[in-house]
Amino acid sequence: YLKAKPADVWAYLTDPEKLALWFHKPKTALAKGDYEMFGVESGDRLMWGKVLVAEPFSRLEYTFTIKPMGDKTSTVKWRLEEVAGGTRLSLNHEGLPQGIDAFDLTLALDNGWDMHLGRMRNSIHAE
Questions:
Q1: Alpha carbon distance 50, 115 (integer Å)
Q2: Per residue, what are the HEC states of 17-49?
Q3: CA 109 centroid distance within chain
Q4: Which residues contact 119 (CB under 8 A, 6 or more apart)?
Q5: What is the pairing mode between strands 86-94 and 74-83?
Q6: SS3 state at 49
């Protein structure tokens, strides 16, 4: 839950300058089509894929690949729902590699999302 309107939360999911505050920075706003995100400090390409769904203020879905995944692709699905006082934001990261060999990657991504979402909340609530 975020104390912000869905339009403001949407900006944190799609606008390069807002994304840079809590996640990684694309060169252009996320919209349907290919994207790449880069480290804010390093400038290194960290993740890439294709935006599949971009319904402003309600739903964003994109494929997600990072170097440790090799040629495997997963899907990140964001849902925004207006609630009294702000927005309910949900994240579902699907299609991650499975099995014992992939479990450490899953744990690392889970920890990363926790960290990034905390940074998003802090940035939004500081406005």
A1: 23
A2: HHHHHHCCEECCCCCCEEEEEECCCCCCEEEEE
A3: 11
A4: 21, 22, 23
A5: antiparallel
A6: strand
Q: What is the pTM of this model?
A: 0.92
> Please, which residues have CB within 8 angstroms of residue 26's CB and are 6 or more apart in sequence?
16, 19, 35, 36, 37, 38
Strand-pair category, 86-94 with 25-26: unpaired
Reduced to 3 states (helix: H, G, I; strand: E, B; else coil), residue 83 is: strand
Dihedral, 79, 107, 20, 38 alpha carbons, nearest 10: -110
> In which element (H, E) is residue 21 found?
helix 16-22
User: Quick one: tokens of 115?
Assistant: 């960290």
The encoded tokens of residue 4 equal 């912000």
Mean pLDDT by 10 residues, the chain (127 residues): 97 98 96 96 95 98 91 94 98 90 88 95 94
